[in-house]
């Protein structure tokens, strides 16, 4: 897990600043991150290379609330997603959901490479009127402590 930090209340300002950089038109503020991180089942990761991931899990299902990277094509998104998937499997999560903008080609490529499948479309989902695709990933059997979950 080198380069990863468990996001907590001490990281609210950092998360909000990174989110604003990645999503300037739909940025979440410090109040939003504070509220989210106080909710049961919400966990966040910060990649020291410049990225973040927030997940919410309930029983054996989870969703990606947000994921973003400051610099594309450095493997940060893949690294965050792999660590998130590893943690979800350890927690017994079987299915992961997300929404992604239809015009976000890098994110779509990342999710498809990991095995996510499109399950639907949400018209005018985003504040700018853009559509979102809903996607799902069926996770493999839960990991035992000590397994990496990256296939390595």
UniProtKB/TrEMBL annotation:
The keyword Ribosomal protein applies. InterPro entries: Acyl_CoA_acyltransferase, GNAT_dom, YpeA/RimI_acetyltransf. Transmembrane segments: none annotated. Residues 3-140 form the N-acetyltransferase domain. Signal peptide: none annotated. GO terms for cellular component: ribosome. GO terms for molecular function: acyltransferase activity, transferring groups other than amino-acyl groups. Keywords: Acyltransferase, Ribonucleoprotein, Ribosomal protein, Transferase. The keyword Transferase applies. Pfam families: Acetyltransf_1. It comes from the Bacteria. This is Ribosomal protein alanine acetyltransferase.
């Amino acid at each position: 897990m080198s380069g990863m930090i468990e996001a907590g209340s001490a990281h609210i300002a950092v998360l909000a600043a990174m989110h604003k950089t990645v999503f300037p038109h739909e940025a979440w503020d410090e109040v939003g991150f504070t509220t989210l991180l106080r909710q049961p089942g919400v966990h966040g990761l910060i990649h020291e290379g410049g990225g973040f991931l927030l997940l919410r899990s309930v029983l054996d299902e989870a969703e990606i609330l947000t994921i973003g990277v400051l610099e594309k094509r450095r493997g940060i998104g893949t690294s965050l997603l792999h660590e998130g998937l590893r943690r979800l499997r350890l927690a017994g999560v079987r299915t992961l959901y997300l929404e992604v903008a239809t015009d976000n080609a890098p994110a779509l490529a990342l999710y498809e490479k990991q095995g996510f499948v499109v399950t639907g479309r949400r018209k005018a989902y985003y504040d700018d009127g853009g559509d979102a695709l809903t996607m799902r990933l069926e996770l493999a059997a839960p990991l035992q402590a000590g397994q990496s979950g990256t296939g390595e």
